[in-house]
Specification:
Blueprint lengths: L3 E5 L2 E10 L1 H7 L1 H12 L11 E6 L13 E9 L10 E5 L2 E9 L5 H16 L2 E2 L2 E6 L11 E9 L1
Antiparallel strand pairs: 1-6, 2-4, 2-5, 3-4, 3-8, 6-9, 7-9, 8-9
């Protein structure tokens, strides 16, 4: 599994957010319930682009950050062409344009930690790149969380 290095344009997202560490997220099923809440309210979001969903993870500026222990912000939302008219209880976020490592996780979502471990462990350390304290997943029709044919595109912003 070798990441593809690519350039992405700025992307605007509107969605629902929560703050927790990975342990809390998994234990309380925060991502799952937030995804359900977003899907129930998707019709309130105007100017949607495409049918996919984004899971954006914003990490604190902390040298010894550990996602299993340290809380971070997660936003689950949809791409929009304009950040006007944000529904009540939702937030907006802009993914900046830039260079990204992209890898597609294949297999059950419960194995996603292995893909992140590869990206942030061996690959990033050996790549010569630094990362920008956030990453995101893109879920489209291939997203089938606990099925063997599940696919999730993961993007990690990079800089030298």
């Amino acid at each position: 599994m070798e990441p593809t290095i690519l350039t992405r344009e700025e992307t605007h997202v509107i969605g629902i957010t929560f703050t927790a560490n990975v342990t809390e997220d998994l234990g309380k099923k925060l991502s799952a319930t937030t995804t359900e809440a977003l899907r129930a309210r998707k019709s309130e979001i105007h100017n949607q682009v495409g049918k996919g969903e984004y899971l954006i993870q914003l990490y604190p500026d902390k040298d010894d950050f550990d996602a299993a222990i340290d809380p971070f912000t997660t936003l689950i939302g949809v791409e929009v062409s304009s950040l006007t008219d944000i529904p009540e209880g939702m937030v907006s976020h802009t993914i900046p344009a830039g260079t990204f490592a992209q890898v597609t996780h294949k297999g059950p979502e419960t194995n996603l930690g292995e893909t992140y471990g590869f990206l942030y462990g061996s690959w990033l350390c050996e790549s010569g790149y630094e990362y920008a304290r956030f990453d995101f997943e893109y879920w489209d029709e291939r997203y089938k969380p606990e099925q063997e044919d599940n696919e999730i595109d993961i993007y990690v912003p990079l800089f030298k």
